[in-house]
């Protein structure tokens, strides 16, 4: 960990706790700052706040009092999940108080370089693939961010020979100042999180921050087939490394004649990749580019891609039961993710879908639904999904109470060589606390078979 006196004797407000807030408050206290934390959860129900109080940190819980910002704070470290239109954040902006997220702190103290991954879809799979390739290639990576340990905790342990592979959300990137990854990856861009960002341009701009501090000595790996991504790339000062699933590229990562290439060098045959789906091929190409740029040998890349079956809850292969292959794609909380999952298979599919009703319809799923053998619905959106299923000509549509009850029904409706896929196209919050909980229930129900 780098010695850092920047925050010594400064009065800093940590707004919102959770894991990143606790880590930020503890680190700033260690760096000599006068830290106050403010969290909505009442103190009596807040063990994190209680622990920070024991360290000598000032704790204010139960609400966000606007007048707290009149106490001379020089910096706000904001939980990424708190939007910028929150009254407390708006007031801090009006007062000219700088606002950062915990990722910025991690960068300032880290002795190790960062490989940062962002995008609308594919971040977690790409981050995991890069980490696995670097680990197999003896590059001593450490994983951080949304997928792993809080970044500032990792940064305190990292040394110069390590590389921190970090998944970054738009929420985190809006709160950076000097953060500069040696390698940045932008997987793709689609409309998302507009309840937080309010507008599409603001969301895309937030994603672009991953490269805003890069120089020509850094690398920016980008999706060559997306105009929105390439527009950001044209404004970057970094060395651009494109990837494409549709055309061969002399520079960057691409496919040709059944082989995967990087900078014109054949890396491995596509048939040796076990992770299904064209959308995953995008993730694989960007991961290969990052691995090659860090000096990973082809044999390490080959090993990872011939054994990697997916990140948990993201088109995760569960197993073969009675000749049916079960896949857990509970992370598919939007229409695009479910489209990608369905397009990954050529076999007949029994789809399990449904969840939180956010007011949208599902007509965009109509083309992908035409390959479905049977549809099993649950949750608030069951009726909407059934309407599209009938329009697509699906003959067997059954509604059940929940995911657990859907699994044995799917088995009864399927035959050997069919795919049974949980890909809800919806958030889980109508029935389950998180998509992980929903996916775990699916996995357990499959094992019960």
Structure described in brief:
The protein is of the alpha/beta class and 449 residues long. It is built from 17 helices and 20 strands.
Structure commentary:
- This protein has 449 residues and is an alpha/beta fold.
- It folds into three domains: 90 residues, Rossmann fold (3-Layer(aba) Sandwich), CATH 3.40.50.720; 203 residues, Mur-like, catalytic domain (UDP-N-acetylmuramoyl-L-alanine:D-glutamate ligase), CATH 3.40.1190.10; 133 residues, Protein-Tyrosine Phosphatase, Chain A (Alpha-Beta Complex), CATH 3.90.190.
- It has 17 helices and 20 strands.
- Helix 1 links the parallel strand 1 and strand 2.
- Helix 4 runs parallel beside helix 6 and helix 16 crosses helix 17.
- One of its GO terms (cellular component) is cytoplasm.
What is the fold-level CATH name, i.e. the topology of the largest domain? Answer: UDP-N-acetylmuramoyl-L-alanine:D-glutamate ligase
> Any low-confidence stretches, pLDDT <50, length ≥5?
none
Number of domains in the coordinates? 3
Query: First CA to last CA: what distance?
Result: 49 Å
Could you say what the CATH architecture of the largest domain is? 3-Layer(aba) Sandwich
Number of helices: 17
- Shape designation: globular
Strand residue percentage: 15-25%
By CATH reckoning, the class of the largest domain would read Alpha Beta
Helix content: 25-40%
How confident is the prediction overall: mean pLDDT? Answer: 94
Q: Tell me the number of strands.
A: 20
* Quaternary structure: single chain
Q: What is the rounded Rg? A: 23 Å
Largest sheet: 9 strands, mixed
Kindly report the spatial arrangement of strands forming the biggest sheet: 7-8-6-9-10-11-12-13-14
The secondary-structure class comes to: alpha/beta
The CATH superfamily label of the largest domain reads Mur-like, catalytic domain
Family: Belongs to the MurCDEF family.
Pfam family, one: MurD-like_N
Domain Mur ligase central: 117-291
EC number: 6.3.2.9
């Amino acid at each position: 960990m780098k010695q850092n006196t920047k925050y010594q004797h400064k009065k800093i407000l940590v707004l919102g706790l959770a894991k990143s807030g606790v880590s930020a408050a503890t680190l700033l206290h260690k760096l000599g700052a006068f830290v106050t934390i403010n969290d909505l959860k009442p103190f009596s129900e807040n063990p994190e706040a209680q622990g920070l109080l024991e360290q000598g940190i000032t704790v204010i819980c139960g609400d966000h009092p606007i007048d707290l910002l009149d106490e001379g704070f020089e910096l706000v470290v904001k939980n990424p999940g708190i939007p910028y239109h929150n009254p407390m954040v708006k007031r801090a902006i009006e007062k000219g108080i700088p606002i950062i997220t915990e990722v910025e702190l991690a960068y300032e103290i880290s002795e190790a370089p960062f490989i940062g991954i962002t995008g609308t879809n594919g971040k977690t799979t790409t981050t995991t693939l890069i980490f696995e390739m670097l680990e197999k290639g003896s590059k001593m990576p450490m994983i951080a961010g949304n997928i792993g340990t809080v970044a500032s905790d990792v940064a305190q342990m990292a040394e110069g020979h390590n590389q921190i592979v970090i998944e970054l959300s738009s929420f985190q990137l809006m709160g950076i100042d000097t953060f500069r990854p040696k390698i940045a990856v932008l997987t793709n861009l689609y409309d998302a999180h507009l309840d937080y960002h309010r507008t599409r341009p603001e969301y895309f701009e937030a994603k672009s921050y991953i490269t805003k501090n890069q120089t020509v000595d850094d690398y920016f790996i980008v999706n060559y087939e997306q105009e929105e991504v390439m527009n950001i790339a044209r404004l970057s000062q970094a060395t651009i490394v494109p990837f494409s699933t549709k055309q061969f590229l002399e520079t960057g990562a691409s496919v040709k004649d059944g082989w995967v290439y990087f900078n014109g060098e054949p890396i491995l045959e596509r048939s040796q990749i076990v992770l299904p789906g064209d959308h995953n091929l995008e993730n694989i190409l960007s991961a290969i580019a990052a691995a090659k740029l860090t000096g990973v040998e082809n044999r390490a890349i080959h090993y990872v891609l011939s054994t990697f079956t997916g990140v948990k809850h993201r088109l995760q292969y569960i197993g073969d039961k009675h000749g049916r292959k079960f896949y857990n794609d509970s992370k598919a909380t939007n229409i695009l993710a479910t489209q990608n999952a369905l397009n990954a298979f050529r076999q007949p599919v029994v789809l399990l879908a449904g969840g939180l009703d956010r007011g949208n319809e599902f007509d965009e799923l109509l083309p992908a639904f035409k390959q479905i053998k049977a549809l099993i619905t649950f949750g608030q959106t069951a009726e909407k999904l059934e309407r599209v299923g009938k329009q697509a000509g699906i003959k067997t549509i059954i509604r059940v109470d929940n995911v657990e009850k859907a699994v044995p029904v799917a088995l009864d409706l399927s035959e050997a060589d069919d795919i049974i896929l949980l890909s809800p196209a919806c958030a889980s919050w109508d029935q389950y606390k998180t998509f992980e909980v929903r996916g775990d229930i699916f996995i357990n129900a499959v094992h019960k078979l």
